[in-house]
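Researcher: Here's a chain I'd like modeled. Treat it as a single chain, no partners, no ligands.
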Amino acid sequence: MLAVEGAIVTIDAMGCQREVARAILDKKADYVLALKGNQGSLREDVEVFAAEQQAKGFADTEVSQETTIDGDHGRIETRTTTVIHDVAWLQQRHDWPGLQAVVVIDSRRESNGKTERETRFYLTSLVMTAALLGPVVRSHWAIENSLHWVMDMMFRDDECRVRTDHAPANFTTIKHMAHNLLRTAPSRDSLRLRRKVAAWDDEFLARLVTR
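Model: Modeled as a single isolated chain. Structure tokens:
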């Protein structure tokens, strides 16, 4: 139902499905899909291949790479984006719709004398270098993280104890709707204050839901 022609669609692991990839391509858009364990042998094949090639300095395959360093509040994060452009072998084994490259993000976070490392994998239909694909992946997680922070601060999402049947999904949908309505309100007040005003002022609440 979405008009996404010419867009880049980014989805986390739950959307990493052949049907989803095919639907995006049919809409003349491109995808960047997080690859995790829900794809079984596909994830395993990519992980093993990336590790083997990294050990060889990527001598046997075509790649592009970019490294960025960010520092904030005493934390230093180094991200190395590697895009594996040679995926013909993967297509032969898994026949993934429109696959053009595999993106590998290696992150190292240093904070309070501790170092954490994480490696994430993505499938993409884009023909781009690491310098262009790295920001696409970072933009996706920036949206995810900022939305989670707002929902937790405003609606205490992490403290919610709704657990029965479809209630969690329904309750989350309602909170997202309320969040979107509050964001579009013509006000300079914070989102938290707008929510309080909506509870106190019936006229303000009515304007929110009828705009």
